[in-house]
């Protein structure tokens, strides 16, 4: 058993994580991003905290409800967390029209800006927030609403009318009727959140369906990586998208499958998803400049999207910490050392005179002073989940080695 992670004791690393969450991220959100009057999150903000606009997005508001409800449920029963979540829920339902999908974006007061067509991601993130808020408040009506939203998304996803517009590949048609790895990923995550709280046979069946799609269909047997898009019948596309691996999504999906395997006490499922996670991380790693790439445009041509994004690094760190906690695997320690030190030396903006972390850039993560968006989901999720995992690891180490 190791007694250090990335060169730190569990106490030292835990302190770093807590500092990033409670003394950096949350105060910045409270001061600049949260709309305390009208609800929602003003994520169109620069690094100095200047709100470029007061507009909001369904994605970010649904995710924000989850973040502050999760904080309440797992860290501190602070009424202000629930107040932030509640006001955002009120705004979300004010923004909802008769359309089956929430609008893509809206102004400070909830009026649809009609910027672009919405997709089911927005609805799924609203459902994610409502699930956690229901657990926080004990109000089952929010759980019922979340389930209705989730199953309505599944119905729409299965219909011949559902179209998904994506901009990952400029050389192929962007309007299609696909199966999307990211859709299964979020539906699996929501199912897992519900099933950790209560049993529901229909939700269990949806979880099974998501696992089957991800592991038995999106996993391309030719090269062992999970492709982002399939045809409606789950067959591989024939226009080149059978070569497109949105590998950041695949890595994110695989730690979620590991977490679901732990919930199910299914060691075979854990081992399979763990092995796939390792392979995807190793393939995605940039041996020259460090960190993982998030998109592989063409596997056989080894053609990568070369920009770096913080969220992909954070999904790697969550999965690695999960493997350390669950298996004490030597590989996970080595890779956490590489990934964490790359992130902590590259993404925090303090050395440039700003708070928070940079959310993306070129392959070298060359600093650009301009910033137009503050990330309100992947960063706190990474920090919260790894704090929880570190507390479990610390408890094991304290028991083995003494405090």
From TrEMBL:
Tell me where on the tree of life, at the top rank, the source sits: Bacteria
GO function term, MF aspect, one:
isomerase activity
Please give a single GO biological process term from the UniProt record.
carbohydrate metabolic process
Q: Which UniProt keywords apply?
A: Isomerase
Is the keyword Isomerase assigned to this protein? yes
Q: Which family does it belong to?
A: Belongs to the N-acylglucosamine 2-epimerase family.
Which PANTHER family does the record cross-reference, listed alphabetically?
N-ACYLGLUCOSAMINE-2-EPIMERASE
Q: What is this protein called?
A: N-acylglucosamine 2-epimerase
Organism (species):
Pseudopedobacter saltans (strain ATCC 51119 / DSM 12145 / JCM 21818 / CCUG 39354 / LMG 10337 / NBRC 100064 / NCIMB 13643)
